[in-house]
Amino acid sequence: MAGPFAALRATRGKGLRLLTGPVTSPTLIAQIARMKSRLPEMHWHSHAPAGRDTVYAGAEQALGKAAETQWVFDKASVIVALGGDGFMLHTLHATRDTNLPVYGMNCGTIGFLMNEYDADGLTQRLEKAQEEVINPLSMEAVDAMGKHHHALAINGVSLLRAGPQAAKLRISVDGKVRMEELVCDGALLSTPAGSTAYNYSAHGPILPIGSDVLALTAMAAFRPRRWRGALLPKTALVRFDVLEAAKRPVMADADGRSVKDVLWVELRSAPGVRHRILFNPGHGLEERMFREQFV
């Protein structure tokens, strides 16, 4: 593959088209962003089928007739999510206003936020499940057009370079500049629940669930050389200002929701938003974090 990639680099990726389905994984989004930074002439296309044929086919198999799904949350006591961590994040965001606990069963790859898939005895497991409550981060960002963007992130918020040159970021905490210039591929502010995801892949620390801290982690820091980040109190207001934004464009990503060409981003914990996740006894987030560190 070295030959084809060398040819693509020579043409800056001209003629290369990447086709994927809808992407919600922060890790995959970051990988594609890095690919685009190295091959700026490439194009990324996301395909989401508009048809409802599979929905109707599934309903016919389960109910004997085609039907549209209607969610009646006021009659539910718990939500069961079948998928991977990306679908779990989607479910938590989509059902935030219901205040219902979510029990996930892993049909994906990693499933850090999920329980093992087992259709037998589900009702009994739900009755015995233990609850973890997590708070997301609240993001406010302004792009180059002056548009304000707001989002919540359960795992964390990433700032990633979106061009061929490294990003330059100024970092402030609670209104005080703590780093005048960080030259890097990106930076990430992670919650305890998200500290084993992209944060851990970027060599950030694993944070115990219930700890009142956030992890600020740099990705491929060039200056200061190999700066690894910092632990911040959960109450901190963290601001990133993008320096030389026109020359060194940066995107922000909050659990798969991306904002291009950001000028600045402010992040803080949102204690008023509570996500309730159910786990089988002895297999909650705390135990999973221990297992991640002693593999």
UniProtKB/TrEMBL annotation:
Transmembrane stretches, start-end: none
GO molecular function: NAD+ kinase activity
Top EC class of this enzyme: transferase
Keyword Iron set for record: no
Swiss-Prot/TrEMBL keywords: Kinase, NAD, NADP, Transferase
A GO BP entry: NADP+ biosynthetic process
Pfam families attached to this UniProt entry: NAD_kinase, NAD_kinase_C
Record SUPFAM superfamilies: NAD kinase/diacylglycerol kinase-like (SSF111331)
The enzyme's E.C. designation: 2.7.1.23
InterPro entries: ATP-NAD_kinase_N, ATP-NAD_kinase_PpnK-typ_C, NAD/diacylglycerol_kinase_sf, NADK
Protein name in UniProt: NAD kinase
Annotated gene: ppnK_2
